[in-house]
Design the sequence.
């Protein structure tokens, strides 16, 4: 293991890119697989759980890892593409060890695990060597004191817990992009997944749900109760929420819509009224909309909103009152690139592009794709027969409809994209050693 630091903290590994010897990224680190032997014997690290294209989880033995530094992991390039399945003798450090209750030998201090360090032993095997423990907060202190101790100085890590918390795992998930957090949440054991879902706030859960498969969305929504499910749906993008509700039984869908705020439910019902795989069904009603008397400065202030996706922030839509969909008469689009070249005090109406054709709600997926490609757009306005803006269809929503169903859960196919997976080794015989 040349140039590899002597100690690596596993929570910091999650999300790091994995590269082959040619410098091409082959995946991301998702977890660390170990075998627990006893309270005093350091567990052997078998390898990493890596996510490759299509959110497929594979196992990367530590014998295939050539270097780990602060920003990436390097491998030999020989990756077995067989889907990872955890064995009964194995433990996932991130998924199962974080938030475990332990006691520090000698002092009797109790706390929860928030990180675990691994390092190479003299025989070149990787082992878990240090445990980072945080005491509960006391008095006015929100966070308790932290301790980093040797593996054999704590007890309780090999004991199964029925009520393991989720604080530290939740902290790790909050540091990830929603798509990465969704992938980690998908592969957690059910009890850990439920603990995380119960602890996460509604807005963050909504962001994560939008990146999950429909099957996962329905399962999680069914576990959190109807009141909270309605709150989470309100936090989701309307088009994603409408797609999710369409996957639910009719009675459940109506119950959730009744529990939502009337205006939010009204938008969803309108989106659900359109035929599947049309511009109306895939569009979002939440665009950046301004009146013709607004200034360029007004427009730039709105597109700076960090909650906007890049495709929604790329354009400002100019309409007559009212300025919520369905709007008054749609006047035109002002592209962000053009707005950046205009004086801030000038009117946004003076920067409009009035030459583009609008998309009709009944336009098919292929027609929308052709429209965006022909005009080199990342988003396009959708207008009704009266010339009112009813929504905006974006390239990311289009891709969701063009890609195969449940594309998030699909592994790589034959003819995989170059640079993502290289030198796949043959599948080992059933029951073969991980190493």
Sequence:
């Amino acid at each position: 293991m040349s140039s590899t630091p002597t100690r690596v903290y596993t929570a910091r590994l999650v999300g790091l890119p994995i590269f082959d010897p040619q410098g091409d990224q082959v995946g991301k680190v998702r977890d660390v697989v170990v075998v627990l032997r006893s309270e005093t014997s350091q567990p052997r690290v078998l390898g990493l759980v890596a996510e490759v294209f299509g959110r497929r989880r594979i196992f990367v033995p530590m014998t295939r890892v050539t270097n780990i530094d602060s920003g990436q992991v390097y491998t030999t390039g020989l990756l077995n593409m067989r889907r990872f399945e955890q064995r009964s003798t194995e433990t996932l450090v991130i998924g199962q060890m974080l938030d475990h209750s332990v006691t520090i030998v000698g002092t009797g201090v109790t706390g929860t695990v928030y990180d675990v360090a691994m390092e190479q032993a003299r025989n070149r095997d990787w082992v878990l060597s240090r445990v980072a423990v945080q005491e509960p907060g006391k008095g006015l202190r929100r966070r308790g004191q932290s301790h980093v101790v040797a593996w054999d100085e704590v007890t309780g890590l090999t004991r199964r817990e029925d009520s393991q918390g989720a604080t530290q795992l939740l902290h790790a998930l909050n540091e990830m992009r929603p798509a990465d957090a969704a992938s980690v949440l998908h592969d957690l054991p059910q009890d850990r997944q439920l603990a995380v879902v119960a602890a996460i706030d509604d807005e963050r859960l909504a962001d994560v749900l939008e990146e999950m498969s429909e099957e996962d969305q329905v399962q999680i929504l069914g576990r959190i109760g109807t009141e909270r499910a309605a709150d989470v749906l309100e936090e989701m993008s309307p088009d994603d929420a409408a797609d999710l509700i369409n996957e639910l039984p009719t009675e459940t869908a109506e119950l959730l819509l009744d529990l939502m705020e009337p205006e939010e439910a009204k938008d969803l019902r309108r989106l659900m009224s359109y035929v599947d795989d049309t511009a109306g069904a895939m569009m979002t009603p939440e665009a950046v909309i301004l009146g013709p008397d607004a200034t360029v400065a007004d427009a730039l202030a709105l597109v700076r909103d960090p909650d906007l996706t890049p495709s929604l922030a790329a354009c400002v839509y100019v309409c007559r009152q009212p300025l919520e969909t369905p709007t008054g008469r749609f006047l035109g689009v002002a592209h962000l690139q053009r707005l950046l070249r205009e004086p801030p005090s000038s009117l946004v109406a003076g920067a409009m592009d009035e030459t583009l054709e609008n998309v009709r709600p009944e336009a098919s997926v292929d027609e929308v794709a052709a429209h965006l490609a022909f005009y080199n757009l990342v988003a396009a306005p959708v207008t009704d027969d009266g010339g009112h803006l009813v929504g905006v269809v974006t390239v990311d929503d289009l891709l969701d409809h063009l890609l195969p169903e449940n594309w998030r859960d699909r592994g790589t196919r034959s003819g995989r994209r170059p640079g993502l997976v290289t030198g796949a080794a043959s599948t080992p015989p059933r029951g073969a050693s991980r190493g």
Remarks:
- The two ends are 15 Å apart (CA to CA).
